[in-house]
Amino acid sequence: MKIAILRFGGSNCDLDVQKALNNLGVCAELVWYKEALEGFDGAIIPGGFSYGDYLRAGAIAARTKIMQSVEEMASDGKPILGICNGAQILSESHLVPGTFTLNQYPKFICKWVNLLKIGRSPFTTLSSEVVQLPIAHKEGRYVVPPELLQELYENDQVVFKYVDDKGRPTSAVNPNGSQDNIAAVSNLEKNVLAMMPHPERASEKLLGSVDGNAIFESMIRHINSL
Amino acid sequence: MLFRAEITIKIKNGMLDPEAATIKKALKHLGYECRSVKQAAVFELEFEADSRQHATDLAQEMCQRLLANPIIHDYNVVLV
Q1: What is the domain partition of chain A in residue ranges?
Q2: What is d(CA B17, CA A171) in angstroms, rounded to the nearest whole number?
Q3: What do you get for the CA distance between the two ends of chain A, in Å?
Q4: Which CATH number fits the domain B2-79, given the four candidates 2.40.10.10, 3.30.1280.10, 3.10.350.10, 3.40.630.10?
Q5: Taking a contact as any Cβ pair under 8 Å apart, which residues of chain A between 4 and 63 contact chain B?
C-alpha cells in the first residue's frame, strides 16, 4: 500500500502526516505538486498555508494540475483526506460541498477541541464516538447554503462536529462559528473527507492524544478492503 | 483589442463578514458611528479579447473559476 502526501509551496504539516503514517507501518510518499500522482492507493493533502493563503485559503492550490489527478483518484473511489489547509483545498476544488472561510472572530485559533463522530464514514470506522484533536486555523468557519445543509444530513456527509465534554454541539464550544458546529464533511460517495482538526497532531502519546491515529487506521483499513 | 476590467468581489448580503465587523468597531473607537460597513476586493485586469462582449465573458469566467467563491461572494464586472 502506498499513500501520497501532497506538497505545495507553503504546506507545513506534510512531514508530521508522513511520520504518523510511518508509525502505523504504512509507506507514505511526499509528492511535490509538479510531480505525477500515479500508483497511489490514497492521498492526503496536509495542512499549512499553500500559496500564503492568497486570495482565499486553498484557492490557488485547488487550481493546480495535480488536483485534477486527485479528482481522478476520487472518482476511482480511492480515499482522499484533506486536513486543515488540505480541507480548504478540497472545498475550493469542489470535491466536498460548502466552504471554509474566515473565523467568526477573525483570529488564528490553536487549541484542542472535542469532536463528535456523526454518521458513517470510511475515515472513522475505528474512531471512538468523541475524540480530542487540535485545531489550528484562521479560515475554518464552515459555510454551506441552507438548502444543501439538509442534503448533507440526509446523505450522511457530516462527519465530525465540535462538541463539549458531554458530546453536545453547543454554540459555546463552536470555535469558529461553523454552521451547525461542523468540523468535517465528506463528498456524497464518502471517499473524500475534508476536516479542519489535525489528526497527525494527536498521533503519539507525547503529543497529548492518540485519537488521530484512528482516522489514519480507518483510512488504511478502507484501502485494504477495496 | 486590449481591455481593462475592474472586478469587485464582496461577501454576499446578509452573510457574516468578520473583517468588516471588526473595522466597524475600530471606526466606532475613533468616534465614527456607522450603521454598516462592507469591504470588498477590487481587481484591475488588462487582457486581450476579440470584442467587448468577449472581454465581459472572459472576466465573468475568471470570477467563476477563481476570483470569487460563489458560496460566499457576489461579484461585479465593469469594463473601463
Answers
A1: 2-225
A2: 18
A3: 11
A4: 3.30.1280.10
A5: 55-56, 59, 63
Q: Which residue of A has its CA nearest to B69?
A: A92
Catalytic status, residue A200 = yes
Q: How far is A119 from chain B (nearest CA, A)?
A: 24
Chain A residue numbers touching B65 (CB-CB < 8 A): 63
Q: Mean pLDDT per segment of 10 residues, for chain A of length 226 residues?
A: 97 98 97 97 98 96 98 98 98 98 95 96 97 98 96 97 96 98 98 98 96 98 96
Residue bearing cell 500564503 = A52
Q: Are B52 and B40 in contact (CB under 8 A)?
A: no
Per residue in B33-55, pLDDT (tens digit) is 999 999 999 999 999 999 999 99
DSSP letters of B20-75?
HHHHHHHHHHTT---S----EEEEEEEEE-SSHHHHHHHHHHHIIIII--TTTEEE
Query: What is the fold, at CATH topology level, of the domain defined by A2-225?
Result: Rossmann fold (3.40.50)
Counting as low any pLDDT under 50, the low residues of chain B are: none
B15 lies within 8 A of chain A by CB = yes
ipTM passes above 0.95: no
